[in-house]
Design goal:
The complex is a heterodimer of chains A (342) and B (346). With 342 residues, chain A is of the alpha/beta class. Chain A contains twelve helices and twelve strands. Chain A has two domains: 4-224, P-loop containing nucleotide triphosphate hydrolases (Rossmann fold, 3-Layer(aba) Sandwich); 249-341, no CATH class. The longest helix of chain A is centred in the middle third of the chain and has 18 residues, at 189-206. In chain B, strand 4 and strand 5 form a beta hairpin. Classes of the chains: A alpha/beta (342), B alpha/beta (346).
């Protein structure tokens, strides 16, 4: 196994609001190695973005606060380091690509300037060198005519090109870890395919670890090595990609897989949606956040206490009160998995 | 005669610049699309952002006036209908919008939002309308107590249900669903898709289903229109389109959709298109897709290929390409050469 880059242990980030405490991230643990891609999957409000922001201590405080846990970057706990040190980590060791390339670039600075800024901040480079590097980086992420493009403003770039520019900025300091927060959600599918290719190439070139945050299981299936499924601030299931898709153990993971229309299936089957509405984060039960929508729940256990992680396969854990054998038999009755269990 | 017949529909928006607001160019948002829909059918329209699918929806409903072309609904020419006729037509043709946050007035109670179409069309007494609103709420899976609330009290999926209830209020026959699920979370998306399917069965509705998500369109539609830069590039029944796409753009679009199955993903060959969609203010000459097309040859730069049936995958499979993909057992069609002038003018 490649070098361990990041070891997150029991991370909890809460927001103290007037209405009460929102437990946006609640005891989340995962690891990331070099050359590895982890997909963090969940719906809006599941805490996946807050988890990523917490790694860089970018959660606004107040109201947000990392209340518990360790964020070990190559053994160093990022919760303990000074503000100055974390600034050196941001962009240099861990870089982030945001969802919306329209709003995450500054409209009044030239694209080249924005990339050069990061280079000058973290590396001992002259302005001229930084600009030259900016042009090289733009060319590297596949922007044609990069020499003149560095002198343009973001509005002169298309959506896909802006996202490429964001990637160029993120890789400018050769980071060990690249966090991509919904990098393709705002883009069309043909552009999405291009961006996924760029991320993949950059990862191969720099041997980085990639944290991919997305709600799109298709994108995850395409590039992730392992997956963490989040719901209501909790990790409900994690495991290698094939385990999550072919041997999922949590009812929420079943729900996610069952509610997707599939392009590759000939049969038109009726979708099996997850019933109910997304949870109100202010009123999560102390136990499993999915109880109430689950359909298999045990009223005297599920909403009251969160189960411990049960290991159900190689590197594959699930947090669910339903006993293993009952889970497997319940799953085999779902339409998607009847066809699959050949 | 089909239920809805769209013929060579065009919508060009003028670009006005300077203090005199002189027209200096046009956005060719919809540039000659034709299709027909049978009653009870779902027709999907797919394409990337800016391809003109939403504009097409608005022009069909005459929320925007067309630049050219005709829309015939049940024998009536919608583009030429008078004000009075139009008001009657609007009862039959409704729309569900993409963004359930922007399409409901935040200052109106749900009962007024859903009841508004009834009030405008002067249907029933106030008491009857109230009853009808409750009926509609129940039809879309909400209940009577939701009527007194405001939109902000609902989640995205519930709001979209309110939008659906409003569209159903006048017992329409045709509903245009403009990206009805793209703003929703995956688990909620499936609920709304299932709801739309149930309502179609229950009320014998005809849908035009617009989406950029090909898997959603495949799931919901009987036939699919693929649009690119204001033009129709391919029309086929949804199974055929996904199984045997003929247009290189359709092929690229299909192969770009990630499939939530790691095994399939590992074994799949993807066609990654280069570059971006050109601006609709300056569509390329000839075939609009040729600058990004791997099959493009000289002829593609001179004239847009006509949308025609290649007799390949059945009579209802139409494609606009000189070099459309052929499938087994079908004779090759010769590409028109430039000097014989066979290629039709744009």
């Amino acid at each position: 196994m490649d070098e361990l880059l990041l070891d997150v242990q029991d991370l909890s980030t809460h927001f103290m609001t007037h209405a009460g405490v929102v437990k946006a991230v609640n005891g989340v643990s995962f690891t990331l190695h070099r050359n590895e891609t982890i997909g963090i999957v969940g719906e809006s409000g599941s805490g996946k973005t807050v988890a990523a922001l917490s790694l860089l201590r970018l959660v606004p405080d107040p109201p947000g606060k990392i209340v518990e846990g360790k964020i070990l970057l190559k053994g160093r706990d990022l919760r303990e380091v000074s503000n100055e040190e974390i600034r050196a980590v941001r962009g240099n060791d861990i870089a982030m690509i945001f969802q919306d390339p329209m709003t995450s670039l500054n409209p009044v600075f030239k694209v080249g300037m924005q990339i050069a800024e990061a280079i000058m901040l973290h590396q001992d480079k002259s302005r001229r060198d930084a600009w030259r590097m900016a042009a090289e980086l733009l060319a590297k992420v596949g922007i044609p005519d990069a020499e003149s493009r560095v002198n343009q403003y973001p509005f002169e770039f298309s959506g896909g090109m802006r996202q490429r520019a964001m990637i160029a900025m993120a890789i400018s300091c050769n980071p060990d870890i690249l966090i991509a927060d919904e990098p393709t959600t705002a883009l069309d599918v043909t552009i999405q395919a291009q961006i996924i290719d760029v991320v993949r190439e950059m990862q191969a070139q720099y041997n980085s670890g990639v944290i991919l945050i997305t709600h799109d299981l298709g994108v995850v299936a395409e590039i992730a090595d392992k997956v963490m499924v989040m719901y209501g601030g909790r990790t409900v299931e994690y495991g290698p990609i094939d385990e999550i898709f072919y041997n999922p153990h949590h009812p929420y993971t079943w729900g996610l897989l069952g509610s997707l229309p599939r392009l590759d299936l000939v049969e038109k089957e009726r979708l099996t949606p997850i019933k109910g509405q997304p949870p109100d984060l202010l009123m999560l039960p102390p136990g499993c956040p999915f109880s109430g929508r689950c359909g298999y729940e045990r009223p005297d256990e599920c909403p009251l206490t969160m189960p411990d992680t049960e290991i159900v396969g190689p590197e594959h854990g699930v947090r669910c009160w339903i006993p293993n054998d009952e889970r497997v038999s319940a799953r085999s009755e779902l339409p998607r998995f009847v066809a699959r269990s050949k | 005669m089909s239920f809805l017949e769209v013929r060579d529909l065009k919508k060009h928006f003028p670009i006005r610049t300077g203090i005199l607001k002189r027209t200096t160019g046009h956005v060719y948002a919809v540039d000659g699309i034709s299709f027909s829909i049978e009653e009870g059918e779902t027709l999907g329209i797919v394409g990337e952002s800016g391809c003109g699918k939403s504009t097409a929806a608005r022009v069909i409903l005459r929320l925007l006036e067309a630049t050219a072309g005709s829309v015939v609904y049940d024998g009536i020419d919608v583009m030429k209908a008078s004000r009075v006729e139009m008001q009657r037509l609007r009862r039959d043709m409704q729309i569900i919008f993409q963004d359930p946050y922007a399409s409901l007035n935040p200052r109106m109670r749900v009962r007024n939002i859903i009841g508004e179409p009834l009030r405008i069309h002067q249907i029933g007494t106030p008491a009857e309308r109230r009853q009808r609103v409750i009926e509609l709420l129940e039809t879309v899976g909400l209940n009577a107590e939701h009527a007194e609330r405001y939109p902000h009290e609902f989640s995205g999926g519930q709001r979209q249900r309110i939008g659906v209830a409003r569209a159903l209020a006048l017992n329409p026959r045709l509903i245009i669903c403009d990206e009805p699920v793209s703003a929703l979370d995956v688990s909620i998306r499936a609920q709304v898709i299932n709801l739309l399917e149930d309502l179609q069965d229950q009320f014998k509705l005809t849908y035009v289903f617009i989406a950029h998500d090909l898997s959603v369109v495949k799931h919901t539609s009987d036939r699919v229109v693929v649009m690119y830069l204001g033009k129709t590039v391919e029309i086929a029944s949804s199974d055929v389109l996904y199984d045997r796409p003929q247009h290189p753009y359709t092929e690229a679009l299909l192969s770009a959709v990630p499939i939530p199955d790691p095994e399939t993903e590992r074994n799949r060959r993807r066609i990654v298109l280069e570059g971006d969609v050109p601006s609709p203010t300056k569509p390329p000459a000839g075939c609009v897709f040729h600058p990004r097309c791997q099959r493009a040859q000289e002829v593609c730069e001179t004239a847009m290929p006509p949308l025609e049936c290649t007799g390949d995958a059945g009579a209802d499979h139409m494609v606009a390409c000189y070099f459309a993909t052929r499938y087994e057992g079908v004779p090759k069609r010769d590409a028109p050469s430039k000097d014989t002038g066979e290629a039709p003018a744009r």
